[in-house]
Amino acid sequence: MRGVRNERRRNLFVFRRLRRSCLPRNDLSAEQAGRETVIQRVFVQALIMRKFLRNSRGVALILTIMIVGLIVALTIQFNRDMRAHVVSTGNIGHGLKALYAAKSGTSCGLGMLMEDSQEVDTLSDLWAVDDNLAGISAGSQALFPGGRFKLKIEDLSGKIQINSLVNKDGNYDIEQQDVLTRFLSLKEFGLETEEADDIVAAIKDWIDTDGDVTSFGAEDDYYRSLERPYHCKNGQLDSPEELLLVKGITRELFYGTEGRPGISAYISVFGDGKININTADIMVLKSLHDEMNVMADLVVEERNKDTTDLSGQWFTTFITDPMQYVVLKSRYFRITSDGYTGKIMRRAVAVVERKKEDFQTLSWKIE
Fold first, then answer.
1. How many helices (H) does the chain have, and how many strands (E)?
2. Looking at the predicted structure, is the pLDDT value of residue 7 above 70?
3. Per-residue pLDDT reduced to its tens digit, 228-244
């Protein structure tokens, strides 16, 4: 208590002396007097701050807590960033393993097609049987520790080859036009005959190189007048999804809805127009001929019999009018391989054409 009183007395003594010293002095110039006044005021402020700090003993503790909290927050953020970096690096590694597994799967599928007989292609061939592909996919785990691939091979010659609708002269291929019109007119798609005809005309205008509108089709003027305008391609389609740009083809028609199939599952942009009746889906079979609409079920039943000689023209017993675009062997295949490592998946898709003694890659895509 006595110490506090003594401190107050000393501060009061100093303050009185400073106040007396702040009085004007006749022996100093104006500049010197002003400089002394500033110094004196600074000294007074220093005394006041000294008193404040002595009476605020918790300030240091608060500052310490704030600094420690800041260090902790920075440490947590740094740890979080480092963990994210480690996980990202691990995902890159897993992604590469999955990618190479997928590529290996496409090579395996190509090997299966090379070993297959070229005389006849059916759904009973090794490359087409799901159980065989599942066994090969399961065995791939031995090749890739912690990884595997899942293989699928599709016969594109069993689909409607949309680019064959237009011949080299830019005109309709009449047989392909009839096939596509019958296909779109199937009751499963819910289109009227006139709607199917208009869509076929629009597809023809999209593919041919001229600017003339075919019946109720569409050329550049129509597509440029849309809310989001674009040009008519006037060239062959690069993917089935490109049909979504064509007049009359909606997403519901292309992908299907609940209770209705979509046309995308039965169409290919690769091929020479010849359809393998041994591998074609029943929807495609119904489109091949007017008589096939009612005979397709019998054809499917017949081709699934073990006693049927698939190497012969067995289907002529059901159809009186011969079809030049129907074949029993395939040239175009799509190989899809999904590579897995942990939770990472990469997909490789290859479209190949069978030559006499080799295969040519027509398309290669990584997804």
1. 10, 8
2. no
3. 999 999 999 999 999 99
* Chain region(s) in the chain for CATH 1.10.40.60: 155-366
Rounded Cα–Cα distance for residues 128 and 356 (Å)? 20
Separation CA 86–CA 93 (nearest Å): 11
Contact by Cβ (8 Å): 323, 289:
yes
Per-residue pLDDT of 267-326, as tens digits, reads 999 999 999 988 999 999 999 888 777 788 888 887 877 666 666 666 666 555 556 788
| 339 in Cβ contact with 346 (< 8 Å) | yes
Mean pLDDT along residues 45-57: 57
Whole-structure pTM value: 0.73
Report pLDDT for 322: 54
**Alpha helix (H) ranges present in 208-260?**
220-224, 251-255
Distance CA 331, CA 155 (A): 8
Tracing tokens 């999804």 back to the chain, one arrives at: 241
**pLDDT of 119 strictly over 60:** yes
Q: Please tell me the CATH superfamily of domain 155-366, with its number.
A: EpsJ-like (1.10.40.60)
Higher-pLDDT residue of 7 and 171 is 171
- Phi, psi for 277 (deg, rounded to 5): -70, -15
Encoded tokens for 124: 């009973």
Q: Which of 175, 123, 131 is nearest to 308 (CA)?
A: 123
What separation, in Å, do the N-terminal and C-terminal C-alpha atoms of the chain show? 83
Tokens of 298: 């019998």
Rg from Cα positions in the chain? 41
Question: What 3 state SS string does 222-239 have?
Answer: HHHCCCCCCCCCCCCCCC
Q: How far is CA 38 from the centre of its chain?
A: 73
